[in-house]
Amino acid sequence: MTNINYIGTRDKNISVTASQAILKGICDDGGLFIPNEIPLIDKTLEELSKLSYKDLAYEILKLYLTDFTEEELKNCINKAYDQKFDTPDIAPVVKKGDVSILELFHGKTIAFKDMALSILPYFMTTAANKNGMDKKIVILTATSGDTGKAALEGFANVEGINIIVFFPETGVSPVQKLQMVTQKGDNTCAVGINGNFDDAQTAVKTIFTDESMKKELNEKGFVFSSANSINIGRLVPQIVYYFNAYFRMAENGDIKIGEKINVSVPTGNFGNILAGYFAYKMGLPVKTFICASNKNNVLTDFFNTGVYNKNREFYVTKSPSMDILVSSNIERLICMLSSQEKTKEVMDDLKNKGEYNIDLTKDIIKGYFASEEETSAAISDMYNKNKYVIDTHTAVAYAAYQKYKKDTSDNTPCVVVSTASPYKFAKDVLISLGKNCDNIEISELMKELEKVSNVAIPAPVDGIEKREIIHKTVINKYDIKDFIKEKLLK
Ligand SMILES: *Cc1c(COP(=O)(O)O)cnc(C)c1O
User: How many CA atoms lie within 13 A of 434 on its CB side?
Assistant: First the structure.
């Protein structure tokens, strides 16, 4: 097997092992780690199609985390993908009308972030042992709602690790917020900020490149890492479920193995869809990726014109986990399709002008977006046709796919990636289905959704409004750095 190293997107001379990349999270120069080459699958699609989710995970992960032993990897996989998931399939695929739906919300926080954040803590502790780490790892995480909870849940009570999560105080759904502020575990901390996701993400990324801050905390025994999708340990486990989706579609009789599929992904930070793109580069037969955005459609414009321009209004939408204007992982795609020199140039442009230009319009990723009205209409359309309730993010991907199909008449079998349970966004989902939700408590909304969807309230959110609020701090977006110092050095 080829040994894979991780190089910087802005400097190809930065080169570390997989375990080091996971520990660091991000390069010292602010660039991201990418594998020095994309490994090809070393078994046939037929062979891989017969594997369980865990065995498939091993076949993919071993190609990327080449400094982990077989025993270490299997141990991580077994601990991650166990009864925490409410189905042994881990990521089931169901056919609904003209699409297959890849359900990625069967983990502990009922959003797709669980797919990677269930395993990242095990990668992290394995990597720390491997590299003789003698410091306490502090995971800094900016969240648009779902990463925060999934990371808190994944890292709660993990020895040698502290986790601090920053979420936009008024930019997440009520259930998302409750999930975070009721998190147990002495090593966990969730903080609301007066700002949006981009503010939180920029502040956290700045800390990773702040040499004096890092040095100061290092002397006190702390090192920083990230649980955001800038961490390669998030990206790699996400590749697995694209292969899984393909094989389940074949099993369902929707495709023959070898045939191409289309993939529609509700996109924010571009981490999920990028993992799909890695799967494609490894040998998964994909014709088109539909990069689905909500009203914050900076990526739609980018894939249509080659101009990325973040200088625009920021909207809080009913798909809050996609309310992002600076999509971090696009940097990896740019580097893969151009060079470190070009990537550095465009990232400098983004920093200085809020805008850059690089033409990726010829690639197989196509940008489409759904307005707020189209998102609601997609929820009711799916329900009316199939009695199946999708969440607001999945609805964006479903609506974007329908627009793509209308534009191109491309009838290639399509998988829509479903990133959250509708229970996480119960109110907006019910409103889209024409229900009156004024002044109705969360618990009542969930009961109503249970009636409508015929799917039981998932255990992780059942009774959530009665849990004790543990994390109450709200800070200004400019005070993130001071807050971290105070928290760790007190
Ligand atoms: C995080 C998230 C997204 C966006 O995923 P990216 O990897 O950031 O593009 C979409 N939907 C839901 C429900 C999410 O939690």
Answer: 6
